[in-house]
Write a structure and sequence with these properties.
mainly alpha, 73 residues
Length: 73
């Protein structure tokens, strides 16, 4: 996200947005905001490379939740 529409800077400046290694072309730019990532996010983000044979195992529980109105997800 390089443009924050419908929100003043006083609001989006508190959102934690970071860019790492992204290539900005044709005048695109990114403005970091917020306090940065928490240590729990950094730990989760640090998954090292794994063989492609493990994709099924790693993503077993990935996907949308099957939530129903009035029930717990």
């Amino acid at each position: 996200v390089t443009k924050r529409e419908d929100a003043p800077e006083s609001q989006w400046s508190h959102w934690n947005w970071r860019s790492e290694g992204d290539l900005m072309l044709n005048g695109a730019f990114f403005t970091p905001s917020g306090g940065g990532a928490s240590s729990s996010y950094a730990k989760a983000y640090s998954l090292s490379a794994r063989p492609s044979s493990l994709v099924g195992t790693i993503t077993t529980y990935a996907g949308a939740l099957n939530c129903r109105k009035g029930s717990r997800c």
